[in-house]
């Protein structure tokens, strides 16, 4: 649990909310592409209810490191879908399993719901092997709330105003610098956090991350930065880095009020239709590309982009 108590807006709608149920219908179909989905709730999760959730599915080919007893599933062509690697990047850092209520298995079958949650730390690194190669990818999970401070998703002036613990924020930033430097031989490097670096939507770019994170992403040739916070789907590309905003787990917002705050031409895709049942992003890594597919909860493909391997 976070060292700081959550700040929950009084404007948060009461559950149950319908988007999660619609959203999860296509997940088993998407997640069973060869590999195991690593579910990262870089969108929002309000305790005790599953409020904003399920932002990203990341498929990889090998056994979940915490489940060595698992055997391959002939049906899936690999290991069963579901060992979650999750970062506590929601507003209040509660460590939540995002989708068990919809019948999606997210962990080792014998494990309790609590033990299925895999949070090594507030921020951590994962090495992913690429199928059919000896190459690897690196996923760095951040806690941008600890780095930049909390925010009020629905309140006026709710942008992060700085970390409560400056020393802890500095330690996380130093850790990130070291991990990015050590990942120089990885074919893909992904960084994930709750707050966006770039966004055209209601919250817009995060000043703290533009100052602290964006230079590191560019310098270390990071493949993509993955985030939530704004309640829509976006893809932006700037300085050779892809920016995935996937926060459509509950309701959708179509505002592009910060369209002038991002670099000209950087926005490649935006979807925030209020009548939509929600959506998510699927990221598949292989030897040739990091392929990002944005899907609506109906299963409809909205946008797809292939990012090349890093030039090593």
Report what the structure shows.
With 312 residues, the chain is of the alpha/beta class. The chain has a single domain, classed as Metallo-dependent phosphatases (Purple Acid Phosphatase, chain A, domain 2), CATH 3.60.21. It has six helices and twelve strands. It has a seven-stranded mixed beta sheet, with helices on one face. It is globular and about 45 Å long. InterPro entries: Metallo-depent_PP-like, Metallophosphoesterase_PAP.
Outline the fold blueprint.
Layout: H1 19-24, H2 27-31, E1 36-40, E2 56-60, E3 124-129, E4 136-141, H3 144-148, H4 166-182, E5 188-192, H5 207-212, H6 214-219, E6 224-227, E7 233-238, E8 241-246, E9 267-271, E10 279-285, E11 290-296, E12 301-307
Parallel strand pairs: 2-10, 4-5, 5-6, 6-8
Antiparallel strand pairs: 1-2, 3-4, 7-8, 7-9, 10-11, 11-12
Organism: Falco tinnunculus
GO molecular function, one term: hydrolase activity
Keywords: Hydrolase, Signal
List keywords for this structure.
single chain, 312 residues, alpha/beta, Purple Acid Phosphatase, chain A, domain 2, 7-stranded mixed beta sheet, 5-stranded mixed beta sheet, 6 helices, disordered N terminus
Strand percentage:
15-25%
Radius of gyration computed on alpha carbons: 18 Å
CATH class: Alpha Beta
* 3D shape: globular
CATH homologous superfamily descriptor: Metallo-dependent phosphatases
CATH architecture: 4-Layer Sandwich
Structural domain tally: 1
Helix and strand content put the structural class at alpha/beta
GO biological process, one term: bone resorption
Keywords: Hydrolase, Signal
GO molecular function, one term: hydrolase activity
Protein name: Acid phosphatase 5, tartrate resistant
